[in-house]
Amino acid sequence: MSELIDKYFAGEMTCEEKKDLFDRIESDEALKKEFLRMQNVVALTQILSRQDDSETSRKGKQHFMQLLFRKRLKRAITVSLKYAAVFAVLVVGTFYTAKLYLSEEFGKSYTIVTAPKGQRVKIELPDGTIAWLSPCSRLRFAASFNETDRKIELDGATYFDVAKNPEKPFVVSAKGYRIRVLGTKFNISAYKNSKEFETDLVEGCVHIYDPADIRNEVFLQPKEKAVLWGDRLMKRESDFDNEEYLKNGVVSFLSEPFGRVLNSVALWNDVNIKIERSVNATQRISGKFRQSDSLESILKALQGAMPFKYKIVSEEEIIIY
Known about the structure:
Elements: H1 2-9, H2 15-27, H3 29-43, H4 54-71, H5 76-83, E1 89-91, E2 94-96, E3 99-105, E4 108-114, E5 121-124, E6 130-133, E7 138-142, E8 150-161, E9 170-174, E10 177-181, E11 185-190, E12 198-203, E13 206-210, E14 213-220, E15 224-229, E16 232-237, H6 242-248, E17 250-257, H7 258-269, E18 272-275, E19 284-290, H8 295-302, E20 310-314, E21 317-320
Domain FecR protein: 112-206
Protein name: FecR family protein
Keywords: Membrane, Transmembrane, Transmembrane helix
């Protein structure tokens, strides 16, 4: 079975062989573990190096090159780079591999990257675009990304620093809307299990539209954001602090309704937060905290902005009263 995995990462499998391998992985736990182990090793070759982690990065790459030699996978690096099969990710200052896997639909291969709850993930896409995934966020794109187009699907919140390419617009699909850019910096918040949709533009120009209704569209300039008013896109002034967010993962909020802040916290931690009627969820508060802070630390910090108590019912449920 290990030979099949070697063949897969070498890019030497036919579509039928890939389907057969994926079917076996689903029913064979040992094979699944071996596949994920190899996937993580491959990811080390694409590690995003920082100055203070250069030695770690060098050793990781060296180890993988030795492994490739032993397993006769000399083509794996080329294939991985070309088809964006794997990535290395930086999670809040420490190197990890995020939940990352491949899927196939109707003969097309896709790469899926998921950020764990309570952690941010940084990746570099094949076109040079940098993406910071917020906790519990998911990106999905075709293996052919950047060959004929630059289309990506998002469930969650992500900050994009898009590489410029006038010939290939960068298009994000989220909650039924399209965000189209050429080269710019912007943040999208569009979790599927939330009613909210928001796009903050930091630099460049963004076109946001509803493909089902061409009249429902907005064009953003820097320091503007798009929000939903009912089912219509509207423009508002933006106070998104991208510099502090990128450097430290610090989220700032200025005069935001308490309920909305809690909603973001719930999405980042994949929990259900119930607010009882005795608490004024519309009261506006201001402050900041790190996305990587523990849920209880964030709640205690919010208690400094307004009076409330909380009860942790389970890992999935919290009551605010």
